[in-house]
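hey m, so remember when u said the tokens were messed up on ur end? i reran from scratch. heres the input so u can diff it against urs
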Amino acid sequence: MIQFESVTKKYPNGQIALEDIDLKIEDGEFVFLVGPSGAGKTSLLRLFTREIWPSAGRILFNEEDILKIPSSKIPYLRRKIGTVFQDFKLLLTRTLFENVAVPLEVVSKSEKEIEETVSGVLEKVGLLEKADMFPAQLSGGEVQRTAIARAIVSKPSVLLADEPTGDLDPKTALSIVKLLEKINEEDKTTVIMATHNAQIVNHFKKRVVYLKNGKIEKDEKEGKYEAD
């Protein structure tokens, strides 16, 4: 379970990104985080991975206050959290297989385990036959699927997706969110997706948390999103 308790984030320039946020996300939920640019969506995600610190409040993950975790243990926290970015952040000089293998190499998995695990994940996202290709040889949707594969290869319990469909055409965007839904349902992975895409949100009818000016304005179980 993820819980934000009275969380406020104020940046040094005086900008208040989030103000008095109370939010609880249960294990296995799929949540769309929506709202206009500057609403605080990315700040909320970055707080959960402890890239930034709140100015006030507590953030709990499985009943543990992540703000009290020693810096030396933060890599262990982040191994439980997969992150997918709009700009992919793949290594252009590595093949798809090599990109997806990076998180396993970091924790010194054996070559056999890496081979089996990465192949299985690439098959799950529909890219096994392109394992030896490089990111520049692929479509935007295929590159994003590779990024998703890399994010889930370590079997995280939470998957964060920050505008993962922002640069994709509608059909490809739909397929990417269907893949995230599959991961959520089959692996019981908690998915939190920040997005501006009203069409996607309204199609999937998941829980919708609407942020505006750093505050939660709406939180609906099967919500809709009227784009700003």
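this time it looks ok to me. The CA atoms of residues 86 and 164 lie 4 Å apart. if urs says something different then somethings off w ur setup not the seq
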